[in-house]
Design goal:
It is built from 18 helices and 13 strands. By secondary structure, the protein is α/β, with parallel strands linked by helices. Helix 2 crosses helix 7 (140-150), helix 5 (107-115) packs across helix 7 (140-150) and helix 14 packs across helix 17 (364-375).
């Protein structure tokens, strides 16, 4: 396909994803699979990462730390979208000739990068928001460039009605141009005859609780570990870090901790995408999703407070029919209660009591129902993919 001339390439999509792990985000992974299956030629531009997965359906173009640091410094300290635009266009000048019709930014820096390629009304700017940067936490100057780019957004995506309202208020977005879809994969997950729990030697007569994803203080993992020795004897904990760095992450988070033998097991398995977790999750009885707000932190303050349906670990658990115990408020607490998909628990300190009275099998059907009826990406897939085929807004 020719890249010459000034007319936009109607089948070309440029996606800017600074975090650099598109195939570890359930929604983004499912969206990329859907877009490429429609015949679009997708190029994902991302910072190079040690843990970078790539499913091969799209082109991956990476950049190094110097550009990443420069663009973040310009955005955060000057607030100038135009300086960021100039630097981005110089850095990726070879992509300008392609003049893709569809420019998609992931979160704040990705949106500003994608906006930098916008040069005419025949191009459409999309915004996939998974994290909300609040001006009162990052500073008004740091928010200015994102707000400027948001003025030209053709469509945007958030996870639920409350997060959508917060995003519109922070960015000045038009609510009518938005679509809400939970952070989730498409379709129920298949089970696996081969199971991590068996390969780790976990006895068949005990129930397995899983803590997975990021292993950090804000996930309340230290409090979870502290509670394990008080759990009923027929429950054990399995910890899985998403980039197969479980031991390393635990050593950094809780140095000198001695893990209770026979009660805590560690995963060293690396899954290429959310669709490859059957081996890890088959045989798991209960999933944990605890979050501790870190006031004032750019992404761990109000972004966690209003997390709602943006928890990938919750959607991944229930996709596998695994009920959840979480401390999140509405809408998740209401969802868990309505579907009998798990329990709300204010603190990991209460887990011994919860596990004493909980039979996870009573919640398995509810977990599947919660995924099927509320979270499944398949429910909004066609709406999201049509955004690349139409000039209309989502509400049009």
């Amino acid at each position: 396909m020719s890249t010459s001339g000034t007319s936009p390439d109607a089948r070309a999509v440029l996606v800017f994803h600074p975090e650099g792990n598109p195939d570890n985000n359930p929604t983004l992974h499912a969206w990329l699979v859907g877009v490429t299956s429609m015949g679009f030629e997708v190029t994902v531009i991302a910072q190079v990462r040690e843990h970078q997965a790539h499913n091969g359906s799209y082109r991956l173009r990476t950049y190094g730390r110097w550009y990443s640091k420069l663009i973040r410094t310009l955005v955060d300290q000057t607030g100038s979208a135009w300086l960021a635009r100039l630097v981005t266009r110089i850095r990726f000048y070879t992509l300008l000739a392609r003049k893709a019709s569809h420019l998609v930014g992931i979160d704040r820096y990705g949106l500003i990068q994608a906006w930098s390629f916008l040069s005419g009304p025949s191009q459409r700017l999309g915004f996939l928001s998974f994290e909300i940067d609040f001006a009162e936490e990052i500073g008004r100057t740091a928010k200015q460039a994102e707000r400027r780019a948001s003025r030209d957004v053709s469509w945007w995506v958030s996870q639920d009605s409350l997060r959508a309202q917060m995003l519109c208020r922070e960015n000045g977005l038009d609510m009518a141009k938005g679509v809400t879809t939970a952070v989730a994969s498409s379709g129920r997950a298949a089970s696996s005859a081969a199971r991590l729990r068996d390969d780790l030697g976990i006895p068949k007569n005990v129930k397995v609780v899983m803590s997975m994803g990021s292993l950090a203080a804000w996930t309340m993992l230290p409090e979870i570990l502290n509670s394990v020795e008080l759990w009923p004897a027929d429950w054990v904990l399995l910890v899985h870090e998403r980039y197969a760095k479980t031991e390393e992450s635990l050593a950094s988070l809780t140095p000198n901790r001695v893990l209770a033998p026979g009660r805590i097991y560690l995963s060293a398995h690396r899954a290429a995408s959310p669709d490859d977790l059957a081996y890890v999750l088959s045989g798991v009885d209960l999933g944990l999703a605890f979050y501790a707000e870190q006031p004032g932190h750019p992404l761990l303050g109000k972004n966690l407070r209003y997390m709602g349906r943006s928890s990938g670990k919750i959607s991944t658990f229930v996709r596998h029919g695994i009920p959840v115990v979480s401390n999140l408020g509405a809408p998740v607490s209401q969802d868990l209660d309505e579907f009998a998909a798990g329990l709300t628990c204010a603190s990991p300190d209460l887990l011994p009591e919860v596990l004493t009275r909980m039979n996870p099998q009573d919640y398995r059907d509810g977990a599947y129902a919660y995924f099927d009826q509320v979270l499944d990406f398949a429910q909004t897939k066609e709406t999201l993919l049509r955004l690349l085929e139409s000039d209309d807004s989502p509400a049009g």
